[in-house]
Design goal:
This protein is an alpha+beta fold and about 375 residues long. About 45% of the residues lie in helices and about 25% in strands. The chain has a four-stranded antiparallel sheet, with helices on both faces. Strands 8-9-11-10 form a four-stranded antiparallel sheet, sandwiched between helices.
Length: about 375
């Protein structure tokens, strides 16, 4: 027998429930359930196991755990290990977690892991946040990731981000996912990651949870943190309230948080002075011949027919223009950002650090009419 099966034979448990690495070819295309039952001789020695393979029926999923002997014993053991009274508030909360626990997981999980996970879920009610609970299949064919996330933040886009992150972390692929939404504050989703035995990378659960938390943070959450770090708490929170809903979705999709914080500073300057703001920059992944140029104008969009000839006379070819309207809360005027994509006319790269201030000064002087 394989070492993992030999280990099971030495354990006192009579029954082991796991998921097979094969999918069912009838009824529904999901991984098969396997039930291993030990066999004994007349003297009580383990002589082998009988393996039953198939799919649990709907009855197994719809009945309460207390109506299924194997699950009833697990639930009883968890309550005893928790130290909670069944009549206490915490005891009732724990029973609710166990009764609504993903049924496949409840069949497969061991009592110690279930106790730790269930108590962690109960404590989530005190501080609602993104939380991750992991369980590795004893044969290393699957990793089960149970994730809780604030309900208002859970959507298809976030689920796909989670799938990519988990697949990369465990060097596997998503075999299935099961979401659960109710009237509770936290949504729950169970990911089953198919893995290769002996090829699961080393991982730190807290670190993976932190990555999931970061993925679930909204653009507004992240810009709040960056503004506080850059301007201090009082000024940062003031700017956050002004700009949390000021940017269009198209802007948030294109630019990262650091760029957003920089643009907020330029927008504030344009609102205060009424003068045109400019920023010549090069994206990290861009070629030396590629440049981008942002113009910040208070009150309305600038005329492209006025800007384009100026830029071309300064040695660049304009390839595209992306406009964005930003309306800070409480501001009398909006600020329009024009983001130009450009190439050098001579197809030679330039030193951005050397050319940036000269480019800004030249453009501003021509725009103001002083040259």
């Amino acid at each position: 027998m394989p070492p993992e099966v030999q280990h099971f034979m030495r354990e006192p448990d009579l029954i082991r429930v796991t998921k097979s690495n094969r999918r069912s070819t009838v009824h529904r295309s999901v991984h098969l359930d396997t039930i291993a039952v030990k066999q004994y001789d007349d003297e009580g020695n383990v002589t082998g196991e009988r393996l039953i393979v198939g799919l649990f029926t709907s009855v197994a999923y719809n009945q309460m755990p207390s109506d299924i002997p194997l699950l009833r014993q697990k639930v009883t053991d968890v309550i005893e290990m928790s130290g909670y009274s069944a009549k206490s508030h915490s005891g009732k909360a724990l029973m609710h977690v166990l009764d609504s626990y993903p049924r496949d997981e409840l069949f497969q999980i061991d009592v110690e892991t279930l106790t730790e996970t269930a108590l962690g879920i109960v404590h989530l009610q005190e501080r609602q946040r993104v939380a991750l609970f992991l369980r590795r299949d004893p044969f290393e064919r699957f990793v089960h990731a149970l994730i809780y996330v604030p309900r208002e933040r859970f959507n298809t886009q976030l689920r796909k981000l989670y799938e990519e992150l988990l697949s990369r972390t465990f060097n596997g692929s998503i075999a299935a996912h099961y979401g659960h939404l109710s009237d509770e504050a936290l949504a729950r989703v169970l990911f089953i990651i198919k893995t290769e035995p002996a090829h699961i990378p080393e991982y730190d659960r807290a670190e993976v949870e932190s990555l999931l938390q970061d993925a679930s943070r909204t653009w507004g959450d992240k810009i709040r943190q960056v503004l506080i770090e850059g301007y201090g708490e009082e000024k940062g929170l003031q700017l956050y309230r002004r700009y949390t809903d000021a940017f269009q979705a198209s802007y948030r999709e294109l630019f990262n948080i650091q760029t957003g914080a920089y643009d907020i500073g330029m927008i504030e300057q344009a609102l205060e002075t009424g003068q045109l703001g400019v920023n010549l920059y090069r994206p990290i992944e861009a070629e030396p011949t590629e440049l981008r140029f942002k113009v910040y104008n208070r009150g309305g969009p600038v005329e492209l027919s006025a800007i384009m000839p100026m830029l071309e006379d300064m040695g660049v070819r304009v390839m595209e223009e992306r406009p964005f309207k930003v309306t800070p809360a409480g501001a009398e005027d909006s600020v329009y950002i024009h983001d130009f994509g450009m190439l050098t006319q001579d197809e030679h790269g330039i030193d951005l650090a050397q050319a940036r201030d000269l480019f800004h000064d030249c453009f501003s002087r021509v725009w103001e009419g002083s040259v």
